């Protein structure tokens, strides 16, 4: 059986990753799943969270995603993410500021309209996902 | 022979035209750079997501029960919606006219299809596509179009309208007509089917993603690429859907359709500005040629005047002698 699979992570902005992996852990709306080579074809919806990709060399890549879709094919996994950032590119301080702002907006939007509220909580989820990606990345590095 | 002052005036006005076209070229070039950047950024996403949609459509076509209403081909097509993405302003060469010609050919084709009662309605973006009203067709909706697209939000209202009217059974087929950006020098008008998603329709790909710039303009390459994708690669995907099929597809398909529509808009934008840039460049060259031609006339007229004057003077002196 194949030991690895082709992985493509794209967002509307750019191609974030395109490489061979041995395993991939994803946050889907049903909970976290891990994909290994030879996984059954699957289509699922992602929620904001941390994605962990295990490279062929054994190194881990930590990626923050803010939702999207995953398509698992025979020898290929495609993730169509709304946004995705590598944890190594993220800046913890900046995220904390953004998160605090989102939290504040959420509180002020809560007693206004629903649409605004949904937007803001999506924003907050996104920042939380980034933060946990960075934290995981830090732990990994130590 | 025209008077020298008349020719002089014309030279001046042609020179002004030259300056104006040069300014317009530079504006178009700046807009083009932005538009091309935007189109290239999203192309991979759009193409990959379209592959996903096609894979789903293939499974849907092969299984007993269709996966999702957006993937089902209607047995009888009564009403077709054509979305035209054109420009707001002219002075961009054959950009709009070649697109509209292509649309005309395409609707002729489907109107003379199996049954002759196919109705066509238009949904238009860009002022220059308003001419379809003169062909005697209904314009169902007109959406505003900006010079350089700002984000997916630009086409969301159009996408929602199309999805709703398709699902309610009002439209049986939805086509999108736009100019596909291949390179700064080449844009191809294209009419493609958006809904229902069918696996056996040709011309699926938006632009060409190629590392080799030479390949980008080759027709064979595009044909090869779509053939390679459409050919049955032997795999049968029986997808699992998590949490469940309806939920996944209801979320996924509309989003991916939006992405396709947005990508068409970006392709059109990039094409428009490149077309305008090259047209303005040509106008500038033509104005330059005209100026040199007029200058020649001007000099000839001036010389003729001098010769005539000298002839008069010498005739006068001859008289006196």
TrEMBL record, chain A:
Give the Pfam families listed for this entry: ATP-synt_DE_N
Residues in the signal sequence:
none
Question: GO MF annotations for this entry?
Answer: ATP binding; proton-transporting ATP synthase activity, rotational mechanism
What is the membrane topology here? Peripheral membrane protein
The ATP synthase F1 complex delta/epsilon subunit N-terminal domain, residue ranges: 5-84
InterPro entries reported in the protein's UniProt record: ATP_synth_F1_dsu/esu, ATP_synth_F1_dsu/esu_N, ATPsynth_dsu/esu_N
Give UniProt keywords alphabetically: ATP synthesis, Cell membrane, CF(1), Hydrogen ion transport, Ion transport, Membrane, Transport
Superkingdom of the organism of origin: Bacteria
Q: State the compartments where it is located.
A: Cell membrane; Endomembrane system
Q: Which Gene Ontology CC terms are recorded?
A: endomembrane system; plasma membrane; proton-transporting ATP synthase complex
Q: Does the keyword Transport apply?
A: yes
**CDD domains with a match to the protein in the record:** F1-ATPase_delta (cd12152)
Subunit structure of this chain's protein: F-type ATPases have 2 components, CF(1) - the catalytic core - and CF(0) - the membrane proton channel. CF(1) has five subunits: alpha(3), beta(3), gamma(1), delta(1), epsilon(1). CF(0) has three main subunits: a, b and c.
The family line of this record is: Belongs to the ATPase epsilon chain family.
Q: What does this protein do?
A: Produces ATP from ADP in the presence of a proton gradient across the membrane.
UniProt protein name: ATP synthase epsilon chain
List the taxonomic lineage. Answer: Bacteria, Candidatus Falkowiibacteriota
TrEMBL record, chain B:
Bilayer topology reads: Peripheral membrane protein
Per UniProt, the keywords (alphabetical) are:
ATP synthesis, Cell membrane, CF(1), Hydrogen ion transport, Ion transport, Membrane, Transport
Top-level taxon of the source organism: Bacteria
**InterPro entries associated with the record:** ATP_synth_F1_ATPase_gsu, ATP_synth_F1_gsu
Question: What's the chief localization of this chain?
Answer: membrane
Pfam family membership, one: ATP-synt
Subcellular compartments = Cell membrane; Membrane
Which ranges of the sequence are coiled-coil? none
The biological process GO terms on file are:
proton motive force-driven plasma membrane ATP synthesis
Q: Which GO terms describe its cellular component?
A: plasma membrane; proton-transporting ATP synthase complex
Can you provide one Gene Ontology molecular function annotated for this UniProt record?
A: proton-transporting ATP synthase activity, rotational mechanism
Similarity comment: Belongs to the ATPase gamma chain family.
The UniProt function text for this chain reads: Produces ATP from ADP in the presence of a proton gradient across the membrane. The gamma chain is believed to be important in regulating ATPase activity and the flow of protons through the CF(0) complex.
Instruction: Relate the assembly described in the record.
Output: F-type ATPases have 2 components, CF(1) - the catalytic core - and CF(0) - the membrane proton channel. CF(1) has five subunits: alpha(3), beta(3), gamma(1), delta(1), epsilon(1). CF(0) has three main subunits: a, b and c.
User: Per its record, how is this protein called by name?
Assistant: ATP synthase gamma chain
Organism the protein comes from: Candidatus Falkowbacteria bacterium CG10_big_fil_rev_8_21_14_0_10_37_14
Q: What lineage does the source organism belong to?
A: Bacteria, Candidatus Falkowiibacteriota
Protein's gene: atpG
